[in-house]
Amino acid sequence: MNVYVAGSLWVVGAVGLGALIAYLVRRYGLDEGRPDNNDAAGQAFTIVGGLHAAVIAFVLISLFDAASTVRDSSYEESQSLVAASWAADALPEPARTEIRELAVGYADTVVNREWPRMRDGDVLPEEGWDQLDRMRAVVDTADVPGDDDWLTSRKTEVADSLLDVFKERQARLNAVQDNNVGMVVWFVLIGGSVIFVLLPNLFGGTKSLTHVVIVSTLAAATTLLLFAIFQMQNPFAGGSKVGPDAFSQAIERLR
After folding, report:
1. pTM here?
2. Cα(246)–Cα(71) distance, integer angstroms
3. Spatial CA neighbour of 236 closest among 174, 153, 168, 163
């Protein structure tokens, strides 16, 4: 489902539910003493609203930063892969050809096999790790004369670039597990949102229509924030998903 359609459905449902509750409270609730409670209810509303806004802001900012980090990390991983392949062009055969073929195969594995699984939150195959291990083994066994400083430096550069690929790959895989919002956080977010939207029903002095509009607006705004968190909790899926563009570009450079 389109993210805008899904978000609209979330908001419409929240507005309808909030408006219904506000109407029932004004229609069948007790009005006696409600205007006199405005000061106490206002203080409670301010405290709850401030705490809830702080929690939502913290979660949203952390998820946004995580998505930006994943995007930057994917480009660093692909750039290190390309750098390793280009540096390996100076190595003797068969190491030069094998490293380039393995680099292309690794990038293709990330794009066509790993990225769809990361999008769905599934376990990744070991093929990517195996390809990197084979590249490392090829570099280690490359026959480079010990008195040739330039070739030795090229071999060292390939090894260093592959180490960077290993590090960025591990960070990418960690992002699949680490950035999901836990059940406890969701409980706090949803529970706080319900309390925040229901508290205005304690206020008195406003007309019924005005009261319904106020509660519906709060429900809509809170639901939009919850929907944004839901969409951003997996950096490889949802409305702010990070695509495998970096590795697609790497394939083009290596072929």
Report:
1. 0.78
2. 9
3. 174
